Amino acid sequence: MRKPLLYILLGLASLATVVPLLYMVSLSLQTEAETLSADAVLVPDSPQWGNYAELFTRAPFGNFIVNSLVVAGAITLAHLLFDPLVGYVFAKFRFPLRNTLFVALLATLMVPFFVRMIPLYVLMATMGWLDTYQGLITPFLMDAFGIFLMRQFIQPIPDDLISAARIDGASELRIYRSVILPQTRPALAVLGLFTFVFQWNEFLWPLVATTTPEMRTIPVGLTLFNQEYFTLWHLTAAGSVILFVPTAVLFVFTQRYFVRGIALTGIK
């Protein structure tokens, strides 16, 4: 009796999660009259695929998408490059004040971004990097959460593997590349997905650090578009679908690593 009840509850929870997404897709295919109708239209009589093309004619959404891909992609690659390396150092190397430095690093997670935003803005303005890619990317090249995640995943790897590689004459970089990284692929997939999704949806810093439409990312561009065309809900919904699709595709390609990561965590 418990299993059917559990399945029903999970089904209802899944339905509550999926229905708003499906309605957003439906809304993006409706006419303006259908979106403003007193009765909600769940399935449009004639899907308006041209809404997506119209969206690009009313605002430079092509620039918005490219900017978001460049910024989110560059930051994700930087995290995948630097976070595992620093996590490996904290997990497997012994040096003075290691634990103190690690605690100090974790303490930065408790500092709200609003506190750091003004110094960051002043620094970027002083360097002349406002309204540029480097101004959007540089402040987020590393992340304390990513370092913590990779350190926790690398720490259980047996030290004997590293010692054996050193006896065989492998350099520290070779050990990191050939011994450590292959065993951390599930964690790297999780880190990459979390980083890309967060940066793809990031709103506050791109809003503050950009002033021209040519440099705005899609969350900022979509919000400003909605403020200008606040009655065109079908076009706003179309922009929301475009905002959602890349992260959904990325999750489809990385979901198997989540299962593998859970299995490895259970073994360790």
UniProtKB/TrEMBL annotation:
Pfam family name, one: BPD_transp_1
Domain ABC transmembrane type-1: 65-254
UniProt keywords, alphabetically: Cell membrane, Membrane, Transmembrane, Transmembrane helix, Transport
Main location as per UniProt: membrane
CDD domains for this protein: TM_PBP2 (cd06261)
Gene Ontology BP, a term: transmembrane transport
Residues annotated as signal peptide: none
Taxonomy, superkingdom: Bacteria
Compartments, record wording: Cell membrane
Gene Ontology terms: cellular component: plasma membrane
InterPro entries: MetI-like, MetI-like_sf
Membrane topology: Multi-pass membrane protein
Transmembrane segments: 61-82, 102-124, 136-154, 175-198, 232-253
Family: Belongs to the binding-protein-dependent transport system permease family.
Name of this protein: Carbohydrate ABC transporter permease
Annotated organism of origin: Nonomuraea deserti
